[in-house]
Amino acid sequence: MTAGLHDAAQYVIWRIVSLVATLLAVSLILFAAVEWLPGDPAQQILGMNATPERLDILREQLNLNDPVPERYGRWLWSTLQGDLGESVRTNQSVRAIIGRPALNTAMLAVTAFAAIAAAALLLAALGGRRDGSRTSTVISVTTLSAVSVPEFIIAGILISIVGLELGWLPAVSLVPSDGTPFSRPEILVLPVISLAIVGGAYGARLIRAAVADAARMPHVQAARLAGLAESRVLLRHLLPSAIPPTVQVLAFMVPFLVGGAVVVERIFAFPGLGSQLVDRIALRDAPVIEAIGLIQAASVIVAFQIADMIGFLASPNRRTAQ
Q1: Residue 213 in this model has a pLDDT that exceeds 80
Q2: 56 inside domain
Q3: Strand, helix or coil at 142?
Q4: Closest CA to 286 of 64, 103, 83
Q5: What gap in Å lies between CA 9 and CA 16, rounded to an integer?
Q6: Which of 42, 104, 146, 207 satisfies CB 3.0 to 4.6 Å to 272 for a cystine?
Q7: What is the spatial distance between Cα 278 and Cα 289, in angstroms, rounded to a whole number?
Q8: For 59-75, what is each residue's pLDDT tens digit?
Q9: Partner residues linked to 93 by β-bridges
Q10: CA distance 319 to 228
Q11: How many domains does the chain fold into?
Q12: How far is CA 226 from the centre of its chain?
């Protein structure tokens, strides 16, 4: 028992160190990518009012004349202290700019993730416990059809039929200026369904394979031969064996939500981080782009690290290769 706890603690510590190292590497890549965006930030900010003298003054104010490594170090140190800087366009605090959009996106993502996880787990359990059955075949065909249709097409169909033709739900997801998306939960329904159909189907297909593999394990077959109720076999023997691959699949839903939210937010005019990112890229507002990119990357990295730790702790026989 002591050795097992020591191994688990060592694994968790290694994962935390790996998390920090990965975040540092991503921050460097992100900063470099923003630096390589085409165009001169000073020229874009001044526009028609640009003159050589004004350009020199503005580049000096924005520290654009400093070496890139020095600017990266200064940005990283400020970020570690919680200072995300100011917009080069409005001189407004980046935290103030992305605060509400981040909250809106978090609420949309958490709601969509819950819907995706529920749909994926239910369909995977129904289709994987009796692989090759009629139910399994129907679920496989249905999920494959759903995965084949991009979320923006599904969103467009939902807007046309449910939002405009039938008028059951808002076609545009406008958040109240003095509230949150949960103040008008109906505005989340169509965006969440758009993400959940594709994400839930994709997750169900992957988890179904893990459940089907677990269903063929000797202890699961022995439980069925012993005459245990199917619900007991499912909950006590089958699903626990599928936990490690399942959490990995659910972790893959986080980058799907990060990318899918950008598309869905634009389609439904939802004021989230995805919409803010697209707008700021067009404005070449580097501090805001870097902050949003770092938040999105950190969400994905943390999700995978947590999934790895849960998978390890749920499988006592698993040992790290590190």
Answers
A1: no
A2: no
A3: helix
A4: 64
A5: 11
A6: 104
A7: 9
A8: 777 777 778 888 888 88
A9: 86
A10: 32
A11: 1
A12: 42
For 289, the enclosing helix (H) or strand (E) is helix 286-314
Give the bridge partners for 86, in sequence order.
93
CATH of residue 244's domain is 1.10.3720.10
Residue 45 lies in a domain: no
Q: Which two tokens stand for residue 3?
A: 């050795």
Nearest to 95 by CA among 108, 111, 79: 79
Residue in this structure with the two tokens 């981080």, named with its chain if needed: 273
List the structure tokens of 121: 């787990």
Give which of 209, 179, 10, 202 is closest to 103, Cα–Cα: 179
Contact 193, 114 (CB under 8 A): no
CA distance 145 to 141: 6
Query: What predicted TM-score, i.e. pTM, was given to this entire model?
Result: 0.81
Which of 59, 105, 99 shows the shortest CA–CA distance to 286? 59
CA-wise closest residue to 214 among 137, 123, 128: 128
The encoded tokens of residue 215 equal: 């269903």
Instruction: Give the range of the structural domain holding residue 265, as residue numbers without chain letter.
Output: 101-283
